[in-house]
Amino acid sequence: MSQFDKYLEESVHGDVIPGAVLYAQDKDGSLEWASAISGPGAQYTMDTVMELASVTKLVTTIAALQLVERGDLSLDQNVEDIIPAFSKLNVLDGFNTNGTPILHKRRNSITVEKLLTHSSGAAYPFVDARLAQLSEKKDGNSENEQTVDGSFDLPLSFEPGEGWMYGSGMDRLGQVIERVTKMGLEQYFHDQIFKPLGITTGTFWGEVGVPMSNRSEHDGKLTHAWNAPAFTGANECHGGQGLVISIPDFSKILRSLLVDDGVLLKPESTASMFLPHLSPAPRTMLLKQIQAAEWTLGDVPTTNEYSWGFGGLLVDGDSHPFRRRNTLTWGGAPSLYWFIDRAAGIYGIFGTQVMPLCDRKVTPVLKAFEEEVYRKAGKLEK
């Protein structure tokens, strides 16, 4: 048994994770690591379907780039041309003494590329405390909040293109895709992404195969509940969250991007995903947030060498101990994590279901998994 296997077992028996499904491959096929481990509270198998949360964003990114390839969208296209309601989105400057928001009329356009890179100004309330304050004041309408418009009926946090905040831009991009294709994301993903790769478990409307495990604030122990807060249940598809899928099925998407097989995207489109797409001001804002945030996925060492690609956080430098430049990585709130390092020729995905959001106790496990993939592939040393 390897040191990592021992560590993983200790993590399960020590109530750090309830279980997990691990999958990794290298480009030439010499490495194929597929493994599942379970604790007493949740039975994980290779077939277990999990909630992806923000892992959904990678699939939406691919869908948008497919439309760019076909000429149905362009990266610099103003999305107001497709969804006129976007013209009503203004920028939040603060609050009056009586608590009413101070807004200014937006000057800059919201483009497809700004939605792809979280530089549109559309931020999540858990990222921007001002939006959280506004959300608390909203008249609760649970049915409306299950739509994209209802979930993100908030002003922008900054002028589009002048900052960076993780947010609902990908959910809005999902709306753009639906409007352009005249079909729902469920159908589009099935026809253009899942079916070509032989993926059978991907859906917005399926059931998960394990309970969500929740860490107690009181004693740090995990409890397991099928009726725990979840990311499915909306009555509209959200481009930024909501997919359920098995880990082996999702790995087919990662492998397609790694080997550049042309099934999903043309080589030039795939290459564009692994390039930095932030101008200096948004990149500076990303670096300030990404190092200190409690909602980041995986290990984010203080290298100050990050940007945003299309689909995830991009390693934008050579200071990381083993990740190569232009490694793309991200994950989902219940502690799922994926990475693609095309220079090293490897990818990996770690699937588990642990809340709260991006649980810090799981982060060392994700870090150890990623390093073990490099070790198994013989790529730990640059």
Estimated radius of gyration: 20 Å
Kindly estimate the percentage of residues that lie in beta strands according to DSSP.
15-25%
CATH uppermost class of the largest domain: Alpha Beta
Q: How many helices does DSSP assign?
A: 11
Assign an overall shape. globular
Summarize the amount of helix as a percent range: 25-40%
Task: Give the CA-CA distance, first to last residue.
Answer: 26 Å
**Might you state the CATH topology name of the largest domain?**
Beta-lactamase
Largest sheet, strands/sense/barrel: 7 strands, antiparallel
Annotated CATH homologous superfamily of the largest domain: DD-peptidase/beta-lactamase superfamily
Number of strands: 14
Overall number of domains? 2
Mean pLDDT: 93
Low-confidence segments, given as residue ranges, are: none
Strand numbers in spatial order across the main sheet: 2-1-13-12-11-10-9
SSE sequence, one letter per element: HEEEHEEHHHHHEEEHHHEEEEEEH
Corresponding CATH architecture of the largest domain: 3-Layer(aba) Sandwich
Class inferred from helices and paired strands = alpha+beta
Protein name: Beta-lactamase
Organism: Hypoxylon rubiginosum
Write a structural description.
- The protein contains eleven helices and 14 strands.
- The strands form four sheets. A seven-stranded antiparallel β-sheet has the order 2-1-13-12-11-10-9, sandwiched between helices.
- The chain is α+β, with helices and mostly antiparallel strands and 382 residues long.
- It folds into two domains: 3-56 and 203-376, DD-peptidase/beta-lactamase superfamily (Beta-lactamase), CATH 3.40.710.10; 69-179, no CATH class.
- This is Beta-lactamase.
- It comes from Hypoxylon rubiginosum.
